[in-house]
Write a structure and sequence with these properties.
single chain, three-stranded mixed sheet, 314 residues, Rossmann fold, alpha/beta, disordered C terminus, seven-stranded mixed sheet
């Protein structure tokens, strides 16, 4: 399915959908370091274009994609930020919705942080999508139940021109694993450590984690262990020579980028790029839910998940 990725970052969502069999026609982003990483890893073009402009809108429309995917910048909704929807980035969610409504692809996928569910911007975007004639499904997914060794909750909204609201929710639910994936499940002991340091936002939170649990959310910063770090009561072990921060490369692997994915740039930029990225296998999980839905619809299949039952008709 011909797909365009808006606000693509370094390409986690693109790669996930590409792995699931979707054809990525092009990507768009405005941050130079992320554009460079994307360009180093994909054969299709990425454009440095302002998607909030009429020119950007017309450019996307000219590609005539069957699907639009993307994650509008989410700092205004993030628990790591000031949660101020008036700062300007939230407007890009509306830009994304307007592009979808104007380009009229059969499908779209919008990704964001969990906190957007409490945002007025989401309500405004939903009105735009519904007015444009889309059936809507949305779900907050915990990446650790989707094949990613990381406790990272992300919001996914999928729209389809020929489906009713809630059409994809059974697939989101039924394909989840029964338990969260740990670093040990994913890497075995190849990281060479059993405990590692992840700098907390405040010392009221622990900073030491075990490979026998999912990684906490990979953020856009990666700091060394500070001298005199006060052990938190939740830390499983004392700081010692056996405890270290994860490397930039290891953090990219936890985001499920492949080992041969190229990350060139300054350490500061790369840490932020990796922290902002959609885990590749999370994008792939959503893409495969869509694939399964399309296959079942073609076969006129019925699916029942919990109390929710949908019957498909041609």
């Amino acid at each position: 399915m011909e797909t365009v990725d808006l606000f693509s970052g370094c390409g986690g969502l693109s790669l996930g959908f590409q792995n699931a069999g979707f054809e990525i026609l092009a990507a768009f982003d405005k941050w130079g370091p992320a554009v460079k990483v994307y360009r180093d890893n994909f054969n299709h073009p990425i454009y440095d274009t302002d998607l909030g402009s009429d020119e950007g809108l017309e450019f996307v429309k000219s590609l005539k994609p069957k699907m639009i995917i993307g994650g509008p910048p989410c700092q205004d909704f993030s628990s790591a930020g000031k949660r101020d929807e008036t700062m300007g980035r939230a407007d890009l969610t509306i830009s994304y919705a307007n592009i979808v409504a104007s380009a009229k692809p059969e499908w779209f996928v919008m990704e964001n942080v969990e906190r957007i569910t409490k945002s007025h911007i989401l309500k405004a975007a939903l009105k735009i999508f519904k007015k444009a004639g889309y059936g809507i499904s949305y779900q907050v997914l915990d990446a650790s139940f989707c094949g990613i060794p990381q406790a990272r909750k992300r919001f996914f909204l999928v729209g389809h021109k020929h489906s009713t609201d809630g059409f994809l929710n059974p697939y989101f639910s039924k394909n989840l694993s029964s338990k969260p994936m740990t670093l040990f499940d994913y890497f075995g002991k190849s990281l060479g450590v059993e405990y590692y340091y992840r700098h907390p936002r405040s010392y009221a939170r622990r900073g030491v984690f075990s490979i026998y649990e999912p990684s906490p959310t990979i953020r856009g910063v990666n700091r060394p262990i500070p001298k005199g770090y006060p052990r938190h009561e939740g830390d499983p072990v004392e700081i010692s020579g056996k405890v270290r921060p994860l490397t930039t490369k290891e953090r990219s692997l936890i985001q499920t980028f492949p080992k041969d994915f190229i990350f060139n740039g300054s350490k500061t930029d790369l840490e932020q790029i990796i922290g902002n990225a959609v885990p590749v296998k999370l994008g792939e999980y959503v893409a495969n839910c869509i694939n399964e839905y399309i296959s079942d619809k073609k076969q006129n299949k019925q699916i029942s998940v919990g109390q929710l039952e949908l019957v498909y008709q041609e």
